[in-house]
Amino acid sequence: MRLFIALLPDKETVAALKDIQRQFRARGVCGGYTKEENLHITLAFIGEYAEPAKVLSVMRSVPFSASSVSLDRVGSFGDLYYAGLDVSGGLKEYAARLRRALDENGIPYDKKPFRPHITLLRRADRQPGGDITVRPVSCLLGRVSLMKSERGYGGMIYTEYGSVRAAAGNKE
Questions:
Q1: Distance of alpha carbon 32 from alpha carbon 60, whole angstroms
Q2: Whose CB among 71, 91, 121, 147 lies 3.0–4.6 Å from 67's, allowing a Cys bridge?
Q3: pTM reported for the whole predicted model
Q4: Is 48 within 8 Å of 110 (Cβ atoms)?
Q5: pLDDT tens for residues 37-85?
């Protein structure tokens, strides 16, 4: 089973992300646009792993406080475009603690540094040119999700396997 741990944005943030994608399309940029239901912030990409219950157990063992994120820019890694995020310090600390717990429990994951972003478009055929307007929207993320990723007819299908909510009253 292909797994990753993620934060899922709220409806207002998704609407702002879709607006950015519309701006790319209006400029004639073609590529693999992330479907609305697949927009997320990856905390740890695990990949093929046969024990999702173990991953969920580790997630439950790491205290999580609700954290705020704000859209603040559009960036790129080569032909991949993303929405950059301004995050509270607590989220980066949580990601580090979560990854440490995965290590301690022998759960493999992609060790690339945590760079909070939401992928908007892969394999862009060109640069959008000019400025892209980013609506400065913020959301409070109070749940961490273990996601299953499967290849479907129309692309990747992400399904929530389980989740962990922020401890009551905990807010960064």
A1: 34
A2: 91
A3: 0.91
A4: no
A5: 999 999 999 999 999 999 999 999 999 999 899 999 999 999 999 999 9
111 is written with which tokens?
A: 């060790």
Has residue 121 got a pLDDT over 80?
A: yes
CA gap 65, 83 in Å, rounded: 23
Average pLDDT over residues 116-133: 92
Q: Are 16 and 135 in contact (CB under 8 A)?
A: yes
Strand ranges for 57-154 from DSSP E: 67-77, 80-87, 117-122, 138-141, 143-152
Q: Residue 47: inside a domain, yes or no?
A: yes
Domain presence at residue 97: yes
Contacts of 86 (CB under 8 A, 6+ apart): 69, 70, 72
CATH number, domain with residue 127: 3.90.1140.10
Residue 170 counted as domain residue: no
Provide the total of helices (H) and of strands (E) in the chain, helices listed first. Answer: 3, 9
